[in-house]
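Input chain follows. Return structure tokens only.
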Amino acid sequence: MSSPDLTSAVAEAAMERVLEFPDNRLLIDLCGAFDAHLAAIETALEIQIVRRGNHLSLLGDADATERAATLLNALYARLEGGRTVEPADVDSQLRMGGTDAGTGVRAGDQIEMSIGEAIEIQTRKKRVEPRTAAQKAYVQSLFKHELAFGIGPAGTGKTYLAVAVGVSMFLSGKVDKIILSRPAVEAGERLGFLPGAMEDKVDPYMQPLYDALNDFLPGKQLAKLREEKAIEIAPLAFMRGRTLSNAFVVLDEAQNATTMQMKMFLTRLGEGSRMVVTGDRTQIDLPRGVPSGLADAERLLKSVPKISFNYFTSRDVVRHPLVAAIIEAYEAEAEHR
């Protein structure tokens, strides 16, 4: 990747650490197409990586080379376990520098937690794997707790993972139905009158939930399950008066639920059910002066046993790397206000 002269100059001024990877086929996947994974690590950690046969030489600051070595070894172990390494996996781990907010986990430990031990969710169309330590803890809490909250910015997998767990539990017979809901609140603009039947009117608000389900279930099966009411997608207002038993229930975009709506929803929990509430406190679209039910639920229920609160940051974003940068920029601006 680098010229011999540049390598020599850097080596004189920096620490060198050499890693050996016995399987050349896995090493190719580790490096990425045109060594793209190595280039991303070089840029992020300000080090140089030189590939010689089945060895990688890491040149740079001692702390940076140590972190790079931990990351590369963990990614290689992932490949040995039969899993893939995508650019998003490398990027998400690089953004977890320092400690994980609220957990006190060191960077090296965080990488091991999120890459070293696999947690996979089996659905009909694909296996879904949480990529970060926060996502892994979140998935574990969804299987363990009857009521779990996922709170954090867009793109951190809160809804996607919840729906994946719901599909997995439904397919394994642990629940009899899946119920997905959102408040029908417009995001900062008035859309006016929507034509068609009730389902046509609410479908635009529910589209992200349809997208997630389509990732996990074949189209014909999904249509059949919806027709049989084994899978329901409905606005939050439609939950009033129901008792949701033996169901996996997800409330998405919960920051747009009012306090009364949130209380109504949470008290629908019935025997044998699991309930997940996801939201982003920075994207509240309620009218000015109307408090968010998510914030109230967090304040009132934080100390209640057997309720799990899971938090995400920009380091858990699994969309395009620019999404994480955008979120961080807005967070920094909010802190200075």
